[in-house]
Design a protein that fits this description.
Strand content: 15-25%
Order of helices and strands: HHEHEHEEEHEHHEHHHE
CATH topology: Rossmann fold
Largest sheet: 8 strands, mixed
CATH superfamily: Vaccinia Virus protein VP39
Strand order of the largest sheet: 3-4-2-1-5-6-8-7
Helix content: 40-55%
Shape: globular
Number of domains: 1
Length: 288
């Protein structure tokens, strides 16, 4: 399986940014809220809610950014980042920052947004006491490097929270497309990138974080249902990403139509039986 470079990731997410915002962002926001609460931003216990600075890595179209701004204290600085300038522009739109405006700051909210690579953060050691990244760690070229960078930019006692795709058996929204393809003899072969499920093992991801230097690592799972209402909606969402679009170009119309119809029918059957379409998220909360 191909592992994408940082430049390839930047290009891919720039192309896919608006589709992601339209179809996928709504299902990521609940997990972003879990990460934010894990940082202590919503807590009145102890010193958890007294953080001075937060770094968000891979803000995407801004759902987690908006949540964080809603819950952080006015005195707490938030810097949100993404590798894709297009994602940054979508976040600025969501927050009401004029796209053509030179400034990427809202001073009254103690907030700044900027483009950067999760594996090469442009910040000094110990710059933040909180860090969160929603659904990015499993995508980067080297999760080990991203974890080490998170550790580096946190001060001692700082907390980082990450989420990744969970276990495939609990994530039907991400497995239906492949399952239906296999039923009619379609094989994605080498057109697919490394599986986004590659970090779903609790022991593996915990050990990666410990190896990066974190002193305590907690691991959990949660299920997020999709707002998809029928099979046609599902096919629009999950056949629109760059991998699927590349693969679809290799098919003749008859084969594609058969595949799509099986996808639509399968999703409609699951919904008619009262089953959610959704996915599991695995998340870790790490203390330096």
């Amino acid at each position: 399986m191909k592992v994408l470079t940082s430049e390839e990731l930047k290009e891919r997410w720039s192309i896919f940014s608006k589709n992601y915002q339209h179809y996928n962002e709504c299902a990521t926001a609940p997990v972003a809220f879990i990460l934010i609460t894990s940082l202590g931003l919503t807590s009145e216990f102890g010193d958890n809610n007294r953080c001075k600075s937060i770094l968000e890595v891979a803000c995407g179209p801004g759902a987690g950014t908006k949540l964080c701004l809603d819950y952080k204290k006015d005195s707490t600085k938030l810097i949100s980042t993404d590798i894709s300038n297009e994602m940054i522009e979508l976040t600025k739109e969501k927050l009401g920052i004029t796209i053509n405006q030179d400034s990427n700051e809202i001073s009254e909210l103690n907030f700044k947004i900027q483009q950067c690579n999760a594996e090469q953060l442009p910040f000094e050691n110990g710059s933040f006491d909180r860090y969160f990244s929603n659904f990015c760690l499993h995508l980067v070229t080297s999760p080990e490097t991203m974890l080490k960078e998170a550790y580096r930019v946190l001060e001692v006692g700082g907390i980082a929270a990450f989420s990744v795709w969970g276990r495939p058996e609990n994530s039907n929204q991400f497995t239906i497309v492949k399952k239906m393809a296999e039923e009619i003899g379609l094989n994605f072969g080498t057109t697919q990138s490394r599986s986004p499920f590659h970090l779903n093992d609790s022991n593996k991801i915990r050990q990666l974080a410990l190896d990066a230097g974190f002193s305590r690592v907690l691991v959990g799972h949660t299920f997020v249902n999709s707002p998809i209402q029928n099979g046609e909606e599902y096919s629009q969402v999950f056949l629109s990403n760059p991998d699927m679009q590349s693969f679809i170009k290799t098919l003749d119309n008859e084969k594609f139509s058969l595949w799509k119809s099986k996808i639509v029918n399968h999703v409609d059957q699951l919904l008619s039986k009262g089953e959610f379409i959704g996915s599991e998220a695995t998340y870790i909360v790490c203390t330096k």
